[in-house]
Amino acid sequence: MKNLIVVLIFAFIPSLSFCQEANDYVIDLKGDTLRGRVRILSLDPVDQVQVVINKKKTTLTATKARAIFFENETYHSVRNGNTQKFMKVIKSGFLSLYAYKLPNQTRYDGLFLAKRNGQSMDVPNLGFKKIMAEFLAECPAVSEGLKDETLKRNDLNKIVDTFNKCNETAKKENTSVKLLSTDSGKEKFDALEAFQKKVEGVENFTAKKDVLDVLQDIKVKLEKQEPIPSYLYGVLKTHVADQPTLTEDLDKLIALLSK
Questions:
Q1: With the CA atoms of 225, 241, 213 and 29 taken in that order, what torsion angle do they form, in degrees rounded to the nearest 10?
Q2: How far is CA 214 from the centre of its chain?
Q3: Of 215, 251, 254, 255, which has the fewest CB atoms closer than 10 Å, so is most exposed?
Q4: Which residues contact 62 (CB under 8 A, 6 or more apart)?
Q5: CA atoms in the 13 A half-sphere facing the CB of 183
Q6: SS3 of 159, please?
Q7: Within 10 Å of residue 105's Cβ, how many Cβ atoms?
Q8: What is the distance between the alpha carbons of residues 231 and 97, in angstroms, rounded to a whole number?
């Protein structure tokens, strides 16, 4: 009986591995999703990612891939000085917090901050208060908190959340009057917010945070009246593929936003 149990356990392990691989994927610059066995290669100066699909290996550099979903973690291709690295997403928003591998290290111990406007920097150890207060000066709640030391290095997650909330409040106050004054613009904005609320209400949804982050990106582009890249729609479809309560509503939302 004991031997039978052991045999059954080992027989089940490959299926577990397959299920994990089925959930891993890479999104390239075109917005196409490559789903298979993923391996991230940390190289200088540009990282690479390998995807094995039906025994065929495809290799992309970090300049040719946008994002990776691997072992329930999300990685973005991020520029850092003269390097392009796949960094693990810790917090995502206008200000994103990433973890990355330091040179000759195997763990993601480096911390990196990047704003959507292109500004970025490593999280400093020395001079943390002064450097961070200057980098995040547009949010008084953060910069003043750093100066009076109510916010410290151990509060990094709180610092990022507070900054993004501050930025979001400013964006809402400056939301384009033209967008909301037109029937079409208001309809798109309302539909997007309704879908966001529906996603928030779904339980046991591992990709919920990623979906909400993408929806927030789309909302910002709506507010700025900027074109919405088609790859963002592809990311959303990939993430909600196993959520039947969301797929139909997402198709309707994409059709509306694409008008």
A1: -70
A2: 7
A3: 255
A4: 46, 47, 48, 49, 77, 84, 85, 86
A5: 0
A6: helix
A7: 11
A8: 22
| 143 contacts 137 by C-beta, under 8 angstroms | yes
Q: How far apart are CA 62 and CA 42, in angstroms?
A: 10
Domains of the chain, first to last: 125-165 (no CATH), 175-259 (1.20.1440)
What pLDDT, on a 0 to 100 scale, did the predictor assign at position 164? Answer: 92
Q: Which two tokens stand for residue 166?
A: 């501050």
pLDDT in tens, 60-80: 999 999 999 999 999 999 999
Q: Which CA distances in Å does 120 have to 47, 79, 97, 107?
A: 18, 9, 10, 21
Over range 230-246, report the average pLDDT. Answer: 88
How many CB atoms within 10 Å of residue 40? 19
Question: What pLDDT is stored for residue 5 in this prediction?
Answer: 41
> Omega before 45 cis (within 30°)?
yes
Q: How is residue 148 written in tokens?
A: 């009076």
Task: Please report, to the nearest 10 degrees, the dihedral formed by the alpha carbons of residues 80, 69, 61, 99 taken in order.
Answer: 20
CA dihedral (214, 35, 198, 181) positive or negative? positive
Tokens of 130: 């002064």
Distance between CA atoms of residues 20 and 36, nearest Å: 9
Q: How does pLDDT run across 113-138, given as a tens digit for each residue?
A: 999 888 999 999 999 999 999 999 99
d(CA 129, CA 149): 8
What is the C-alpha separation between 67 and 74, in angstroms, rounded? Answer: 7
Q: Enumerate the H helices of the chain as residue ranges.
A: 2-23, 128-135, 140-147, 156-173, 177-181, 183-200, 208-223, 230-239, 244-257
Find which of 7-11, 57-61, 255-259 is predicted with most confidence, using mean pLDDT: 57-61
pLDDT at 207 over 70: yes
